[in-house]
Amino acid sequence: MGARRASEDTGRRIGRRALIVGGAVAATGTAVLARDELARLWWRVPGIEKPREQGAVDFAGARWVSASDANWRRADRPDDFGIDMVIVHVTQGSFDSAVRAFQDPGHKAATHYIVGQDGRVTQMIRELDVAYHAGNRDYNERSVGIEHEGFVDRPQDLTDEMYEASARLTARICARYDIPVDREHIIGHVEVPGTDHTDPGPHWDWDRYLKLVRRARTTLRA
């Protein structure tokens, strides 16, 4: 009951905001504002059917490779589960080994995205759906998970290309769901309650990463 009321309240807030945005656009005649706002708002309106075209990605430039169905569950986020968090992981292996693991039904885990050391981005689960990546059901339902190729004890694995590509991805996710760019909402796997993981590890530069995400987020508004 409480969840249903929360969903209805969210819908009313989105509806009011859409009207306000529409009025502002009409008054200013700014077509760019209309496109940007509506592109973000429609995704969160309860009852709107989300697209599920074969091979579609949520982040432009990402390559689609399907994870095993055993490593995620179908949902209709953010209608049924609000998204308010990005969780950062490190693979403890190569890019290709992470892809193989997420395609393995016996692995029982996968993230939405993998970012390589060369900056390439592969999406394996739609943001609509719940990926089994955090080791905590509540956190799985409310987050998008991003793996990064490398090992937690090898700072050289965390390349400039990786940081920059991941920051652009996280900025887009934060824009889509109005997630604040801060350490309360962008966290490491190690910070998930109940987890036994240590990633992204001591060499992950959070100050640098958040600065890059904020810069990319500002560019999206421009």
- Quaternary state of the chains: single chain
Overall mean pLDDT: 85
Shape: globular
By secondary-structure content and strand pairing, the structural class works out as: alpha/beta
- The first-to-last residue Cα distance is 40 Å
Unreliable spans are 1-30
Biggest sheet features: 6 strands, mixed
CATH architecture: 3-Layer(aba) Sandwich
Under CATH, the topology is which?
A: Lysozyme-like
Number of structurally distinct domains = 1
Radius of gyration: 18 Å
* Topology order in helix (H) and strand (E) letters: HHEEEHEEEHEHEH
At the first level of CATH, the class is: Alpha Beta
The proportion of residues forming helix, as a percent range, comes to 25-40%
Order of strands across the main sheet: 1-5-4-7-3-8
Number of strands: 8
Contiguous helical run count: 6
% residues in beta strands: 5-15%
CATH superfamily: Peptidoglycan recognition protein-like
Description of the molecule:
- The protein has 6 helices and 8 strands.
- With about 220 residues, the chain is an alpha/beta fold.
- The protein has one domain: 3-Layer(aba) Sandwich (Lysozyme-like).
- It has a 6-stranded mixed sheet, with helices on both faces. A two-stranded antiparallel sheet has the order 2-6.
- The longest helix has 27 residues, at about 1-30.
Sequence-ordered SSE layout with sheet pairings:
Blueprint: H1 2-28, H2 31-41, E1 63-64, E2 72-73, E3 85-88, H3 95-103, E4 113-115, E5 121-123, E6 130-131, H4 137-142, E7 143-148, H5 160-177, E8 186-188, H6 206-221
Parallel strand pairs: 1-5, 3-7, 3-8, 4-7
Antiparallel strand pairs: 2-6, 4-5
